[in-house]
Amino acid sequence: MLRVLVVGAGLTGSLCAALLRRTVAGPLHLALWDKAGDAGGRMITANSPQNPRCTADLGAQYITCTPHYAEKHREFYEELLAHGVLVPLTSPIEGMMVKEGDCNFVAPQGISSIIKHYLKESGAEVFFKQRVTQINLRNNVWEVSKETGSPEQFDLVILTMPAPQILELQGDIVNLITECQRQQLASVSYSSRYALGLFYEVGMKIDVPWAGRYITSNPCVRFISIDNQKRSIESSEFGPSLVIHTTVPFGVTHMEHREEDVQQIISQQLETILPGLPQPVATKCQKWRYSQVINSAANCPGQMTLHLNPSLVCGGDGFTHSNFDGCVASALSVLEALKNHI
Ligand SMILES: Cc1cc2nc3c(=O)[nH]c(=O)nc-3n(C[C@H](O)[C@H](O)[C@H](O)COP(=O)(O)OP(=O)(O)OC[C@H]3O[C@@H](n4cnc5c(N)ncnc54)[C@H](O)[C@@H]3O)c2cc1C
């Protein structure tokens, strides 16, 4: 039985798991570990603690499909559309850059439903709150340690966390990464920002003619989404939700500040843009230290192979670009790199 571990329940990890399940003909034990408490990674959807049906996409907002990727990744789009995981974006987003031929999609059940779709398809055993700390090579098998519990053995390991977090791992992996690979991983850079999700009472109305709006004149707020409207879901059973993304300069300046202080500043700035909003019933402040890739790893074809046999491969948007198609391209590259070992 081939024992495979995928680290990271974001889009790249969940899709790698689904593609492995489709590809591996023989018996396969597929495990997926994530340090977070839920699936999604940077495509996370938060629930209001007051009403779990009131949700907000705190990371990725919508999927933009260019004519190039509409063709190249056609099967992925067709599958997600056929299952109702994605639907065309029909609500107005003010200030959005629209290029000819592009199509935009939203996930009505929240953006993390894309990841949940692939996890279900993969049949992987998914474990949350499992932070990988060490990777060692023992008798030609990977021994993977986590913060709690005993280390476990795998024949093949796929890492999909942001590049700086690969460099934080301890054990034999430190010496397996060549100097050139270390430099490539260290050169991957990311923007940083905060997201604030606000969950409101049932019946509350936000009276604006848009579902999302890019803000260009505020030092703190870059984007606002009336998240349920963006996804065209309105109900008498749950209230509206609002998502605010900060600007990158604000994110960088406030990265090490106390979350409560940051949340207060964002709320004050929101008041200048949308005055008179009532108090939300719940809030969720998310720090995105690694938000979107600015520079991806140079000369990497969508993945980085740290060891061939047994295989230890890295994927993720750090090897391509930060969006749906970047992650799909990376997952396909990971599978291509593994094709002679599975
Ligand atoms: C604010 C924001 C807005 C965005 N907007 C858009 C958009 O509108 N459209 C779009 O297409 N894309 C957008 N993106 C980019 C998109 O979200 C990312 O490109 C994509 O989600 C990256 O997926 P990934 O699986 O490669 O990485 P991630 O989603 O980061 O997944 C990596 C996972 O690894 C886990 N992990 C890390 N270290 C460990 C460890 N040691 N042990 C176990 N688990 C670990 C993390 O918890 C995480 O779940 C946005 C991103 C952000 C942050």
Name its key features:
22 strands; six-stranded mixed β-sheet; 11 helices; 27% strand; single chain; globular; 342 residues; binds flavin-adenine dinucleotide; alpha+beta
Q: Which stretches are poorly predicted, pLDDT < 50 over at least 5 residues?
A: none
- The helical percent reads 25-40%
Order of the strands making up the biggest sheet = 9-2-1-13-22-21
**Distance N terminus to C terminus?**
11 Å
Describe this structure in words.
Residues 105-331 form the Amine oxidase domain. Residues 1-25 form the signal peptide. GO terms for molecular function: epinephrine binding; monoamine oxidase activity; NADH binding; oxidoreductase activity, acting on NAD(P)H. The chain is of the alpha+beta class and 342 residues long. 28% of the residues lie in helices and 27% in strands. It is built from 11 helices and 22 strands. The chain has helices at residues 11-23, 67-72, 74-82, 112-122, 163-167, 173-176, 179-186, 227-230, 248-254, 259-273, 324-338, and strands at residues 2-7, 28-33, 45-47, 55-57, 63-65, 87-88, 93-94, 103-106, 125-127, 132-138, 141-146, 152-154, 156-159, 189-190, 193-199, 212-214, 221-226, 241-246, 282-288, 293-295, 304-307, 311-314. The strands form 6 sheets. It has a 6-stranded mixed sheet with strand order 9-2-1-13-22-21, covered by helices on one side. It has a 6-stranded mixed sheet with strand order 7-16-17-18-15-19. It has a 3-stranded antiparallel sheet with strand order 5-8-6. Helix 1 (11-23) runs parallel beside helix 4 (112-122) and helix 1 (11-23) packs parallel to helix 11 (324-338). It is globular. It starts with a strand and ends with a helix. The model has no long low-confidence stretch (mean pLDDT 97). Residues 7-13, 33-36, 41-43, 59-63, 131-132, 160-162, 165, 193, 195, 245, 288, 291-292, 316-317, 322-324, 326-327 line the site of flavin-adenine dinucleotide.
